[in-house]
Every structure is written in C-alpha cells, then in structure tokens.
Design a protein that fits this description.
Aspartate Aminotransferase, domain 2; Aspartate Aminotransferase, domain 1; about 10% strand; seven-stranded mixed beta sheet; about 400 residues
C-alpha cells in the first residue's frame, strides 16, 4: 500500500502493515458466508497457539475483554484486592473494577518500568487475591519473581501481555507461555493487528471452555442457539478480524524483526543527542536526568517493540515539545499517564506522590513515530526534529 514519503510528509505515530494477503483472506471469509464463529476464527486460535508454543488460545473482541474474562476465570470479586502497576493503559485496572475488585497499585522498576516485585510483596494484605503484572511497552515483567510471590501467598496471576506479543522473559520463554492466564491485544498499532481484537491463553481445557462460553453470552459450544447456562458477554471476534490475524501471523516474525531494526536505528541516532539507554548509567538511584531511551534486553530478556517511548531530559516542557514536533511534521504523544491519577481511581484514595518512580517516568515519557516500515531517513528526521525541539 502506498504512503506519502516526501520530506514534507507528516510522519505518523503508527501505521499498520497490511497488504494483499490480508485482503485475500478477508475476501475468502466474505465469500464463505461464515462471518462469525466460523472456521477462520478457529484457525486463528490454533495458529496463534502454535506460534506462541501453548496448547490453546481463545480469541475475543479486545485485550480489555480478554482481561475481563481472565479476572472472572480466577474468581476475583467484591472485597478482593489485586496488585498491579499504575503505569499502564487504564484497561489493566478497569477489568478489575468491572468485577468489584480493588486494584492495589505498586511502584515500578525504574529501568523496565514494570511492576516492582519488592513493592508488590510489601503491598500484600489480608484481602490480596492476585497479581496482575503488565509487560509494559513490550518489556517482559519479572515473572519468575512474581510467580514465587504468588505461590508463597496463594495468589492468582493474570498477565497483561497486550503490548508484548513476541517478548522473551528472563528464563528465555515467550511472554504468555508460562502457564498462567495471559492476555494479548490486536489494536491497529500492535505488533499484530486485527483492527480490534484480543486473545487469552487458558490454563487448562476447563478454563478454555468457560472462556469460550462467556465470550458468547454464556452459551456452551454444545448448547442450542438460545440456550445459556451462565452469565456471559458479547466478546466474540469476527471471522473477518480473524482473517487479518491469520495473515499477520504468517509474517509476524518478519514484522517483529523490522520493529527491532527501527528501534536500533532510534537508539543509534538518539545517542548523538545525549540520550542514554535505560539502566546504562552509574547512579545508585537508578535514575537519570538526561534523555533516556528504552532498554532492548538484559540477559535472556528481550523486548517486543510495541512503541518507542523515550524519557525527555528533566525540565523539558513536554507539551511544548509535542507542539514543536507537530510543526515539524512529526507526530508524538505523551505516553503513558499514571492511571491512579484518573478521577475514577482517585476515588479509591489514590493521589500524587504515592508512586514516585512511575510518576516521574510518566511525566517525562514521549512516544515517537514507530512502525515496521519506517526508513532510516524517517528515523533521522524524527531525531533531528526532537533535538531541535528540546534544545
């Protein structure tokens, strides 16, 4: 598909990589007459599970619906508390609120920006029933440490891997393949897109059957058209969306490599503007007042590049930087806000100053244009514009 690429064309924040194969499979579904709950959906589930290295996967309408069904599968409900991060997309907490569960926020690691296991351990109380780690910006959370914590205290685990398809954890395993309930999302800017969509990896066959029932209004696969034996939701993924997913899976490894290539170009270009890699500085506080670029990996850990979010130098006006970049034809976005400061979560008693590491990262974080087909010249133009905007 053609896109403007001249020197004056705006560089967008994200761009999905779709083409002839996606068109071919979508057309196949249209001609089949099976637009929902058909063979293409089953194929997407089967091929996704095979790629991830798990026994099964259940396709749903979004990452948010996957999280919601995961909360229900774990039996979390009113009066329960679940430990999670405030530095995330709001769905990570909303999925708990849907079921009357209180999210208990804990601060994050300053290098990975993921839930800090020590902070999580300190927050466990009598009402704690689980942990919901987020693999933020595609970087693997400290799952071995969090699993140890969960086992010690008898807690459930629900992984929010909605930004992390393809990431590898500290033990060399793909994120989402450790045996816990794990969720993925396929929005248009994700590593794999179905436009809107999600997937949840079940822990066993019984959980998979429950997930498939609840995504379809509580109807089991062997029940009649209007027979329902439990509360359910309309969380189905259409076969049209699944067709996109199947086509995207066929080139997923290639797209992940392309994203890593773009990230490497950014790191090299920004190093000349005095940005340093997160964690690559000598400071006991593990913070850095200059510009910071995200870490690609550490040991066996490997990031799956979802967005490219830098931390601006301390004292730089982010809003002014965004406006100046826009004037120069470069899209950018403040990414992410700390969700404990949203009005509906402040009502639970949260406010400024409670999670200093997360809040400091949030205040300085800026997402730059990032998509698999970005050229070296586009990356250079973004970095030159950024340097000009913050000078």
């Amino acid at each position: 598909m053609g896109h403007e690429s001249g020197p004056s064309a705006e560089i967008p924040l994200a761009r999905p990589e779709v083409g002839g194969r996606e068109e071919e499979l979508v057309l196949e579904v249209l001609r089949s007459g099976r637009l929902s709950l058909g063979p293409m959906g089953e194929r997407f589930e089967r091929e996704f599970a095979a790629w991830l290295g798990v026994e099964d996967a259940v396709a749903v309408s979004s990452g948010t619906s996957a999280l919601h069904l995961g909360v229900r599968a774990l039996g979390w409900g009113p009066g329960n508390e679940v430990l999670t991060s405030p530095f995330t997309f709001v769905a990570s907490a909303n999925c708990l609120l849907y079921e009357g569960v209180k999210p208990v926020f804990c601060d994050v690691d300053p290098v990975t920006l993921n839930l800090d296991p020590d902070a999580a351990g300190a927050a466990i109380g009598e009402r704690t029933k689980g942990i919901l780690p987020i693999h933020i910006f595609g970087y693997p959370a400290a799952m071995p440490e969090l699993e140890t914590l969960a086992r010690k205290h008898g807690l459930g685990l629900l992984e929010d891997a909605c930004q992390a398809l393809g990431a590898v954890d500290s033990e060399g395993r793909r994120v989402g393949a450790r045996g816990s309930l794990a969720t993925f999302a396929f929005y248009a800017n994700k590593q794999l897109t179905t436009g809107e969509g999600g997937m949840i990896v079940p822990t066993d066959a019984a959980v998979a059957a429950r997930l498939r029932s609840e995504r379809n209004q509580g109807r089991a696969t062997d029940m009649g058209w209007l027979d329902h034996d439990r509360l359910g939701f309309n969380y189905r993924l259409s076969d049209l969306a699944a067709a996109l997913g199947v086509a995207q899976l066929e080139k997923l490894d290639e797209m992940l490599s392309a994203r890593a290539r773009v990230a490497s170009l950014y790191e090299a270009a920004l190093s000349t503007a005095d940005f340093v890699v997160s964690g690559a500085y000598r400071d006991e506080t593990r913070t850095h007042r200059g510009g910071v670029v995200p870490i690609a990996g550490r040991g066996q850990e490997r990031r799956s590049w979802f967005v490219y979010a830098v931390q601006l130098p301390d004292g730089v006006d982010r809003d002014a930087t965004i406006a100046r970049l826009a004037d120069l034809g470069v899209a950018s976005k403040a990414y992410l806000p700390c969700i404990h400061l949203f009005p509906h979560l402040r009502e639970l008693g949260y406010g400024e100053g409670q999670f200093p590491v997360a809040e400091a990262a949030s205040a300085r974080s800026l997402a730059l244009p990032f998509f698999p087909t970005m050229s070296e010249s586009q990356v250079s133009r973004v970095c030159e514009a950024l340097a000009e905007s913050i000078s």
